[in-house]
Amino acid sequence: MAVRKKSDFPVSEIRRFIEPGPIVLVSSQHKGERNIMTMGWHMVMSFEPSLIGCYVWNQNHSHELIRKSRQCVINVPTSTMADTVVGIGNTSGRDIDKFQHFNLTATKAENVDVPMIGECHANLECRLVDGTLIRTYSVFVFEVVKAHAPKTPRTPKMLHYTGDGVFITSGPTRNLRKKFRPEKL
Fold it and tell me: What does the pLDDT look like over 49-82, one tens digit per residue?
């Protein structure tokens, strides 16, 4: 491998290198009011139980719905939904019903009282298990209590945000399973 030549890079733009995962659509509901938000700041925190940490800005309409209901659904869109993902991120649930406005199908979840987005590749039903970071950092820690996904494709083309209105999509997969020690899989 060759050493790459580098120059100074603005620290305010490092997100393009370190975004934690694909863009997701988070659906929420409380007392009959529902919403969808576009989110890129999330991370897997544990496998068993399955915990996900999510940053939900306290000025976002979904913040209060999730905080009060203590639940949400993390919906994983594919790259074919890029325009919808951007549209959802550019609108407020205070003004419109995003399910209606973007022609999305609200499907019933099994373990939470929040609609799933039928058009998304996967749906993760979540319950808040740790709210100690909400007030200080707007970070919610959820346990995934039920997951829904088709058997194929196992890894669809997903969207990843790099800032400045630019997305990349996940590319072809490389199976390196044979190189892993079993306990590291």
Answer: 999 999 999 999 999 999 999 999 999 999 999 9
- Nearest alpha-carbon partner for 30 in 131, 132, 128: 128
Radius of gyration of the chain (CA): 17
Compute the distance between CA of residue 135 and CA of residue 131 in angstroms, rounded to an integer: 8
Peptide bond into 150 cis (omega under 30): no
More confident residue, 44 or 174: 44
Cα 5 to Cα 2, 12, 14, distances in angstroms: 9, 21, 17
Q: What is the largest CA-CA distance in the chain?
A: 57
Distance (Å, whole) CA 171 – CA 36: 26
Question: Which pair of structure tokens corresponds to residue 127?
Answer: 């319950």
Collapse the DSSP code of 68 into the 3-class scheme (helix H, G, I; strand E, B; otherwise coil) and give the result.
helix
Q: Is the pLDDT of residue 20 over 80?
A: no
DSSP summary character for residue 81: G
In tens, the pLDDT along 76-123 reads: 999 999 999 999 999 999 999 999 999 999 999 999 999 999 999 999
| Domains of the chain, start order | 21-184 (2.30.110.10)
